[in-house]
Amino acid sequence: ERLVGASLQVAPIYPPTTFALLSPFTFLPWGWANFVWLLLGLAGVAATIFLLWRLRRSRAGDLETMALVTFLLSFDPLHQAFHLGNVALLVVPLVFWAILLAQREQDWQAGLAIGIAASLKPQIGVWVLLYYLLRGRKQVFLGALAAGALVAAILLLQPVALFNAISDYRANLQY
């Protein structure tokens, strides 16, 4: 409630790093912010399909690729994420891009992508980061750490005090 000045109890479900990364949307009027967010979600769906296709190293017209695209486009959680504007629509392609970069041994860039993904939605990004850490890919970890440090620095520049947000997160855990 102190975060937004509303009389309702606000219980945020995302970490403060997500709010720091999404704060540029606050400069747009609601209609434009919503429209841009929907376009980003749609681009995320397209990027997910494209990156899975690249990771599989398959041909564009083969039956397996068409079956995969059909499955993805008919996948109900994907529809729900799009309708609800879930940030996972951006995080999943970021993680797939990081995996593609790691396959190309561009570990630093892969780490940056994973760090941003983990800052947006830790429950997805952290597991991919842990995988590369257990595989001994230290550059991936350092890239993610650099991205996380940058997001934390951005967060500290925000006018909302972190201590005010802590009680809201406790309320979230209660619900």
The largest β sheet comes out as:
none
Estimate percent helicity. over 70%
Helix tally equals 9
**Estimated share of beta-strand residues:** under 5%
- Global structural class: mainly alpha
Task: Provide the residue-averaged pLDDT.
Answer: 85
Number of strands: 0
Note the run of SSEs as H and E.
HHHHHHHHH
Morphology = globular
Report Rg: 18 Å
Distance between the termini: 15 Å
| Low-confidence parts | none
Structure, described:
The chain is built from 9 helices and no strands. The chain has 175 residues and is mostly helical. Helix content is 74%, strand content 0%. α2 runs parallel beside α5 (88-103).
Short summary:
With 175 residues, the protein is mainly alpha-helical. It has 9 helices and no strands.
Write the layout of secondary structure elements.
Blueprint: H1 16-22, H2 30-56, H3 63-74, H4 76-84, H5 88-103, H6 107-120, H7 122-134, H8 138-156, H9 162-174
For this entry, give a set of tags:
mainly alpha, 175 residues, 0% strand, 74% helix
